[in-house]
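Record type: monomer structure entry
Structure origin: computed from sequence
Chain ID: A
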Amino acid sequence: MMFHMRQHQVVVAISTKRRMAVTTPIRIDAYVANLHVSNTDSLTQKCYDIDPDFQRHLVTTSEWHNNLISHLIFHGQLNPLIYHTVKRGKLRYFENLDGKQRSSALHCFMNDKFRFQNTKAFAHPHDDFVNQLMVECSGKYYSEWPEEYRSHFDTLTIDVCVYPFEMSETMKADFFADLQNSVSASCGEVINTLRYKKVVKLLKDAMAKYNLKKIWKTPSIRQTDLLTFANLAYIYFKNPETTRDPVNEDIIDWVATEGNNIDDAKFTEFTACVYKTLDFLHSLDIPYKSAKNTIIGAFLMFTPHRSVPETTIDKIKTKYETTKTLVWPEIQGKPDQGWRRYTYLTTVYV
C-alpha cells in the first residue's frame, strides 16, 4: 500500500512540472476579435499576434482564402493554430508560430476584404443548412450575409494550441525545422527564425541592396531569396570545393552554429561576387518563361530543375570563354552541376 501511494505521489509531482502546449477550441468571432494583425499597431493583453518579425509575409490569394473559408464551413474545422506565450513586463500575449495565413484569411473575410465564393463542386451529403449557406452567401461580403448564416459562421470553432512559455530562438528553429519535415515550412523560413545570427542579418542587408526582381521577374515566396543567398554563402564560406548541392540540414546547421563567425571583409567580397554573377545572369536576356526553368532552375534551384538549352550554354561559354575549363554540357540533367558552376562563377570567373 505504501509503495503505491509513493508511486502515485511521484507521478503527480512530475506532471505538475511539465509545461506542455494546451489546445483549446475557440469561437471564430472571439478569435478574430482578438487578433493583432500588424506590427504597426500596439499589442494588447492576451492578444494573438500573427505578425511577429520572423514570420513570412502574406503570400496567399483570394482563391486560397475562399478555399479555406469554404472548407471551414463545409467540414467545420481547420488545422490547429499554434502560438507560444510572450511576457513583456505586465503585458502577456501569444505570438504565432504556425497559422498566420489562415488567421489572416479569417480576419480579411470578417472585415469585408473579399467576397466569399463557394469553391465546393458538390453538395454536402448530410447538411442541408450548409448547402443553403454556401449557395445563398456565395458572391457576398461577410456583412451582407443573412444573420442566421453569420451567426452560424461566428460560432464555428477552431483549435488554438498555445505553449505556456516563450520559446528560445534555438527551440523556435527546431520547431520550424520539424514543420519543414511535414512540408509546412520552408528551409528559408527556418533560417529566418535565426535572424539573431550575424550571417542572417548580413544576408538580408545584401538582398535589400540588390533588385532581385530583375532576375526572378516575380515576387518570391516562403523566404526563397534568403534560402538562395544562404545556400551560396554556405558554399562560399564553408565548402567552396563541394561537388553536390548542400542539403537543407547542412545550411541550417551552419547558420545556427557558425552564423556569428563571419568576417566582414570576406562577406563584402562574397556579395560583390554574387552581385556580379546575378548581373551576368540578367544580361543573358533569356525570355522569362525560359529563364524561369533554365537559368534559375539550373543555377539557383529556384524552381524544379529542367535541362539547360544549348543556346543558354553557348551564351555562357561566349561570355566567359571557359569552354576548356568548364564542361558545360554536364549541367544538363544534373542539378548539382548547376550549383558547382554557379560557385565557380562567383569565386573564379566574375
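Annotation 1: The longest strand covers residues 81-88.
Annotation 2: The CA atoms of residues 299 and 338 lie 4 Å apart.
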